[in-house]
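REQUEST FORM: STRUCTURE PREDICTION
Request ID: SP-0412
Submitted by: Lab K.M.
Chain count: 1
Length (residues): 403
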Amino acid sequence: MKTIDELLAEGVSGRRIFVRADLNVPLDGDTITDDGRIRAAVPTISRLADAGARVVVASHLGRPKGAPDPQFSLAPVARRLGELLDRPVAFASDTVGDSAKATVAGLGDGGVTLLENLRFNAGETSKDDAERGAFADELAALADGYVGDGFGAVHRKHASVYDLPARLPHAAGGLIATEVGVLRKLTDEAARPYAVVLGGAKVSDKLGVIDHLLERADRILIGGGMVYTFLAAQGHEVGGSLLQEDELPAVRDYLRRAEERGVEFVLPVDVTAAAAFPDLRTKAPASPVTVAADAIPADLMGLDIGPESRKLYAAKLADAATVFWNGPMGVFEHPDFAEGTRALAQALLDSPAFTVVGGGDSAAAVRILGFDENAFGHISTGGGASLEYLEGKTLPGLAALED
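STATUS: Completed
RESULT:
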């Protein structure tokens, strides 16, 4: 895989370099509520612009349905990117149309432009190779070289991620190089004890990575909405908590295999529960109560790990040498159910381990709850990509950069 260092050594001054970044940030109207992914993209863009490249940045945002949709416009991102780069960022109001062509043509050496949301074109996400390829051809006409740096999208077989590198001289950006290096440490070189913390809403989203980690981890801690399927698999009542009954056989099998292999599965001993899911917009008090994890009343739903579980999880991480964390412990967006995720993050900071926060909601929680990002070993920009890498899957965006 060619690196950006090699590309810069060849010289990029005056060349149009297409940078596929991941600027898929959360928006509240026109307000960016978490700019972590934009900040992660800045070093690669800056290095190219400082070397005299004419930088064409592209990204997706949200899930528009292959046509322009104002609520998913990258215009607010262009403004924030300019602030972080401390240089003007021209914004093209389309992806490969007249605005994109004119904006790119107007770039001088060291100039930067951001194209409108790639997913406003149906070819970006099409499952038809020809349609996707046709869009990649149009994107390729805007550039002389390609740098893949959107780690959060490398698990997608999309035009700008998979097809475009085949049409241009290409290299991996600094962010992708860092992400892959960290994930290799988790798969091939993990210092032991190796603990994995998995949370989030659905156990079905984590089945593949659990299956793979049963061969590698020493200890797996479970939290979030997925924990209730594990508790039910052990025969416990979970009340009105989130439950994926169709996954119970798979979960029972994982618990059996873990016991056979000596992998410790850690589940909460108590949970913070309420009668209804909280209002995340108003943050109105939700009257939380603490109940035993193996006896959740029928009229309550578990929404966070409880105080004794927080102590238990911290103890289970205290002696770890490597920790990978993906998924919050509860509904951290509401103050009544944020303490489990807060305690977990603090336990990682207190641990001497090399700690990796696996992107997505976990990374957002670290920032929203006020933790110093630099205190963790690494915070990934791609939750789904991180999980698929740890599952041992081939990621299309990485494969496209490797030839």
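NOTES: The first strand starts at residue 16 and ends at 20.
Reviewed by: T.R.
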